[in-house]
Write a structure and sequence with these properties.
alpha+beta, five-stranded antiparallel beta sheet, four-stranded antiparallel beta sheet, about 30% strand
């Protein structure tokens, strides 16, 4: 007697349910991994902003501590302005400007910032300089590279010329985020304020021609790039504010208060919003790894009478 062979297997419904379960499980695993990687990258971005900002604050603090409070008064009376391009004559500030300079502790030769009106009663800082008397810091705003719809109206970044140690003129026209140069005479801020034949001016220029001031030589090895564009979440200044230095006449000291906003150039960083902000997640491309981080750093520093 022949026995009928029975073949066991999945029904179409069972197979569909099994495939659906495996699919849901796979998607869950992918989402968990994706969220874990995203959280890690976001954390790394926040850590990098905080770490770099702390290093920059320490760098500025050291520069300030190594500068001289007395040198600020000297710059108001020094003969540092060259007449003409090829001339060898110098002139000092007028008595009126020299008096204003001393009363402000030469504040205009310490801190320079250019603000841009972008409409709706809003302005943003787009470049500036902080001259400590040891090193000078020049910066261009992250809005130049962010590409988030902010219209800078054709504004250009800082360009400067100087003589190297061999006496060769160097024209630095490439875009940079933040550099520092050895500048004990504050020539950078002097040049940015010395516009249209005005000596102690509120006008600001981004064409810094140091060849017309003194020797025009940047000391040391030239500009030092503190925020190089190394790909990924590149960082930039969005603001740098220096309050007028408070002087203590008893012991010939100066006290500085400095703050700066450091953030990523991706992810929609916005310092116009209250408390600063990043773009909302829905405004970024799906799966975007352009994480945004912004932090504000505040530091107070004291300068001794010194040299």
């Amino acid at each position: 007697m022949l026995m009928k062979q029975i073949r066991e297997g999945f029904t179409l419904v069972e197979l569909a349910l099994a495939m659906a379960f495996v699919g849901v499980l796979s998607i869950s695993i992918v989402l968990i991994i994706s969220n874990t990687v995203a959280a890690y990258q976001r954390g790394m971005t926040l850590t990098r902003v905080n770490s770099v900002g702390t290093d920059l604050a320490n760098d500025m603090r050291i520069s300030i501590n190594n500068s001289s409070a007395r040198a600020i008064a000297d710059i108001c009376t020094a003969s540092i302005f060259k007449k003409g391009v090829n001339g060898d004559e110098y002139e000092s500030l007028s008595s009126t400007d020299a008096t204003a300079c001393k009363e402000e502790n030469a504040f205009k030769y310490i801190y320079v910032v250019k603000n841009k009106d972008i409409g709706s009663d809003k302005t943003i800082p787009i470049y500036g300089a902080f001259c400590t008397g040891e090193y000078s810091y020049m910066w261009n705003s992250g809005y130049f590279v962010q590409g988030n719809g902010v219209d800078l109206g054709g504004e250009s970044w800082i360009k400067f010329s100087y003589y190297d140690d061999e006496g060769t003129q160097v024209n630095h026209t490439d875009f940079f985020r933040l550099i520092k140069v050895k500048d004990s005479s504050r020539s950078v801020c002097v040049a940015m304020r010395n516009t249209n034949n005005k000596r102690y001016s509120d006008d600001i220029t981004n064409m810094v021609d140091l060849t017309k001031i003194g020797s025009g030589r940047i000391e040391g090895s030239g500009p030092i790039d503190l925020l190089p564009n190394d790909g990924g979440n590149s960082l930039a200044f969005y603001d740098l504010f220096v309050s007028p230095p408070a002087a203590s006449m008893e012991n010939d000291n100066l006290f500085y208060s400095v703050s700066f906003v450091l953030g990523t150039t991706t992810g929609g960083a916005d310092i116009l919003a209250k408390g600063n902000s990043c773009a909302a997640p829905q405004d970024l491309a799906l799966g975007s790894s352009n994480y945004c981080a912004i932090n504000k750093f505040n530091l107070a520093m004291q300068v001794n009478g010194g040299k």
